[in-house]
Amino acid sequence: MVTITNLVKRYDDLVALDHLNLEIKEGEIYGLLGPNGSGKTTAINCMLALLKYDKGSIQIMGEEMRPDSYEIKKNIGVVMQNVAVFEQMSVWENVDYFCGLYIKDKKKRKALTEEAIQFVGLEDYRKKRPGKLSGGLLRRLNIACGIVHKPKLIIMDEPTVAVDPQSRNKILEGILELNRQGSTIIYTSHYMEEVEQICTRISIMDKGRVLATGTKEELKGMIKTGETVTIEAIALGDKELQEIKELPHVFDIFYEEQILKIRLSGAKHNLLRILHYLEEKDIAFGRVYSELPTLNDVFLEITGKELRD
Ligand SMILES: Nc1ncnc2c1ncn2[C@@H]1O[C@H](COP(=O)(O)OP(=O)(O)OP(=O)(O)O)[C@@H](O)[C@H]1O
């Protein structure tokens, strides 16, 4: 569906995309996960031929994407980060307007507009102006405008930023449904939970480059961390910290404000070994829990920094 090869985009001295490569297949929900400023929006604007780039190539649906590739553009739906609707028009009129850009047949246009409004759950707001909608509902309207013409490829740039949990769930469920109905989706986000929840494949981006690509399981399999054990309300000195660090399978520890985080490679009985050590040394502690690796751990191991800012 989309092939990006060695894409380079500079803004003066800043290299926003540094030999970016992506291969997105038909039927995927493809996640671009990266912190703010990693180049996700720039990549999308290049894909849509809204931005000129310095080097590389972009092919969509088997053809080179150019500013005048109108046939390809007809088959793409875009939901950008900033809501782009007309303030003077009602919810219905907005969705109908965007539908009219692609669909000329009046009956079909009306049916598609109604379908999109129901799809995002804005039936009760048909006559309302965008200014009367909450942030979450406004984003749903933005989505309805982007998908109303039933495009083959839907590109969504952080559609859930600053959205309440109810609208967020509605949006995520909607994306899964659009995919079930046959659309390929490209989804950018800096929320790892969302990407894990809906994406079939994920590229982790930082500084304009793809650091790793795979399913969430494949990405987690690429790193050393098998589990992270957290122990709260524990008072430890340097000696004990050193001894814990030397326990089998431990490869990293963080200790701050009486909270100990131990990163271990995947092995059986990790937690038991740690608890046994604490018991032997008669060290008191509070809540203990073990977590499987997250995409944040993948990002942390590759870049040395947290995904979240
Ligand atoms: N028009 C511009 N002029 C100069 N620099 C820009 C411009 N647009 C983006 N940048 C810079 O390019 C880099 C990539 O930005 P981009 O917006 O693509 O990242 P992003 O991953 O989408 O982040 P965000 O989630 O904050 O939008 C950043 O360092 C940003 O400051």
From TrEMBL:
Pfam families: ABC_tran (PF00005), DrrA1-3_C (PF13732). Keywords: ATP-binding, Nucleotide-binding, Transport. The keyword S-adenosyl-L-methionine does not apply. Residues 2-232 form the ABC transporter domain. InterPro entries: AAA+_ATPase, ABC_transporter-like_ATP-bd, DrrA1/2-like_C, P-loop_NTPase. GO terms for molecular function: ATP binding. PANTHER family: LINEARMYCIN RESISTANCE ATP-BINDING PROTEIN LNRL. This is ABC transporter ATP-binding protein. It comes from Dorea acetigenes.
